[in-house]
Amino acid sequence: MEHGKAKVPADFLENDYLKIMVLPELGGRIQRATDKTNNYDFVYYNHVIKPALVGLAGPWISGGIEFNWPQHHRPSTYDPVSFHMQENEDGSATVMVGEAENMFRTKGNAYFTLYPDKAWLEIRAQLYNRTSVPQTFLWWANPAVPVNDNTQSVFPPDVHAVMDHGKRDVSRFPIATGTYYKMDYSAGVDIFRYKNIPVPTSYMACHSDYDFVGGYDYGKEAGILHIADHHIAPGKKQWTWGCGEFGQAWDRNLTDEDGPYVELMTGCFTDNQPDFSWLAPYEEKTFTQYFMPYKGVGMVKNTTLDAAVGLETEGGNAVVTVYAMGEEQVKIRLTRREQILFEEDAQLDPGLHYRKEVKLPEDIREEELLVQVISEEGKELVSYRPKKEEVVKIPEPARAAPAPEDAASCEDLYLYGLDGSDIRLNNAYGKLLFNRGLFAESEPYFRRAVEKQLRSNPNPYDGEPLYQLGLSLKFQGKMQEAYDAFYKATWNGAWQDAAFYQLVCIDCAGGDFAAALSHIERSLVRNYHNIKARNLKSCLLRKMGRTEEAKAWTFSTIAIDGLDANSRREPLVYYNKKQEADKALASLEKAYTLNTGDSRVLMELDQLYKKIGRSPEERAALLEAHMEQTQDRDDLYVEYITLMNILGRHEEALERTLGRQFHPWEGGEGKLYGTQENHIYYYLGCTLEAQGRAEEAAECFAKASTGISEPVGAMYYNDQPPEMIYYQGLALLKLGRQKEAYGRFNKLIAYGEAHLFDEMKIDYFAGSLPDLLIFEEDLSRKNVSHCLFMKGLGHLGRKETQRVEECFEEIRTKDSGFYDANIRNIF
């Protein structure tokens, strides 16, 4: 990667306590947030911009606060966004950033406001569905926090269990006592602390009635807090690359000198990833979050926007700590029931913290204590009462959807999409087809849902199927039928704003502007912040000659939304949805011809070549003809080096590998970093043996014989590759342990035979896969190749040549891509 300096425009917010840097050119992220009272960056400040392949569209950078919406690591996280700055009448200042994103065409704005007398940053989010159909979304603000051996995450005291993505696994918290992320924590490990987590790990709070989450550095006596109403902001998450070798590789990949970090993510309208919430057509959702530094309190027990409080008891003493987010004259009180144990006046401000050690009565229990911070006016700013320590039942992890015959109820059949006669299911499947652009195909499902709704009552309780039928008809050009369906949908209050808006669109197309204006008013009664309806009303007023009204209405819209302002999809539709590989190829080749400088499209074209069985020679020729683009991406360059090995150009592959600094990327795990090395130690042992260095050779063979020896399906990057088990067997033969060696070979054969005819599917909770998956994979075909490969390796170890040739030849004829990647020129 080339290093250099470039000017990136930045907006700053600053008061006596904080200085905030916003980068509209890089996704509207908060790049730096500094506590001026102690010069502490309370979010991780990365001094360099080192994009890595983590975002949905590729480039992603660490540090600061990223805003993940409507998907995690959103496609535009590295792209410019609209922005505006303004000073407000109350002395505060606001930086507005926002965009209309290209995945679902929804819009999101964030308003960053700093007030003159407060040591916190307010973030008001405004999400808006600009489309005529419901859209999913998630919102996770993603602050990075610097970590070291002195840091820990600060979760509320009522968090006793945490869950993985999709709630597929669960762990006790903060002391983990089982297996989590394949790590044995049975000895009891404090996973609050970064230093105790060796592998990439996520955990999300199962439940909390508190409004905060944060992190603290005991070495610096400073940390970060996030505050938001837990009723709409239940998500409290920590993610780390881990403190082991793999995590350190990612640290080097993402920064030069700023070291490791964790992400203390905060989710609104969701408590887990990838659990999405919904935006109805033209719906707006707004919410507010606050980020702030704090000092001295350590493990916060409760916090408000006024103050944070800590309470620890040990050795017959209570330690009370308080931090205030503004200048406050307060009374700090510790009580036992009605008995005041301690009370003291204090002057607090964000540059200081308060600490007091109080001797406790001998017979006191912690749950009897109450600590309060009370303002000069008698208002309680914050308080905390410990709960009695009890054994808390840990929730069960989520389960995969059952087969139809195993569903326990009609509700299950609907929720899992298995009852073909259900109104809701027909409506849902119709929406799926509609969203794929199959308008005519969606119509029968919407009609079936409506017909069943009307079977016993001509005026259904739910207007959504009628609304969706109207959309299907409108997109087919059946305007009168659509008009009728939309009007009937307006009988239902939940769908009035969207249905009346659709009537306006049809009115305008027909030139009936008076009816359109009447209908737009009725739509806005139900949803005053429908920006599309508001803009359309401005157009109608201008069209009708009411210019001054239009101008005033436009300004009122700007007050609501201050930032009111796809050729690569086609191949994916052809290949993944229509199974038309020829059209996918023609489309993608045309896309690359239009812009041969786009390395991502070249990578996708090469992946398609691999899927359809183009030879390694053809693929290598394509990449060599566009070497500048091939060298632009690590994932593509690794494919090119792999082709060099397949074609027997090993010295060139080695030279290219050693001549490049690679960076890990999501989806590339196990290809360069984290690879199994049994084969390397085996061949090194063979070399030493040939040189007569028997003792050194035996050491290498011993290393080559270790590792996981149980074969598994090829579903996760850290699963043991079957060829490594094969090399374990070869190494054991070299060590004279023939029985153990044949045990390895026989396991490979047995697994291949037992699972050859399995019907494969992606795990219900899978968050990542071992291979780059742009074009959908025939998993069952891949499993057949995988099992035949295992059998062939087992027979190869047993020197059963005929059976080896049978297995490998069947792979070559059925799956040339697998054969080229795993067998050709290797054995």
Overview of this protein structure:
The mean pLDDT is 89. Strand 28 and strand 29 form a beta hairpin. With 827 residues, this protein is an alpha+beta fold. The chain is built from 24 helices and 35 strands. The strands form nine sheets. An eight-stranded antiparallel sheet has the order 8-9-10-11-27-23-22-14, with no helix packed on it. A seven-stranded antiparallel sheet has the order 7-13-25-24-21-15-16, with no helix packed on it.
- Please describe the biggest sheet, giving its number of strands, its sense, and whether it closes into a barrel: 8 strands, antiparallel
Q: Measured on Cα atoms, how large is the radius of gyration?
A: 31 Å
Q: Roughly what fraction of the amino acids lie in strands? A: 15-25%
Oligomer: single chain
By helix and strand content, what is the structural category? alpha+beta
Shape: globular
Q: What percent of the residues sit in helical stretches (DSSP H or I)?
A: 25-40%
Number of helices: 24
Uncertain residue ranges:
none
**Strands in their spatial order, largest beta sheet:** 8-9-10-11-27-23-22-14
Distance between the terminal alpha carbons, to the nearest Å? 35 Å
Number of strands: 35
Instruction: Please state the average pLDDT score.
Output: 89
Task: List key phrases describing it.
globular; 23% strand; 827 residues; alpha+beta; single chain
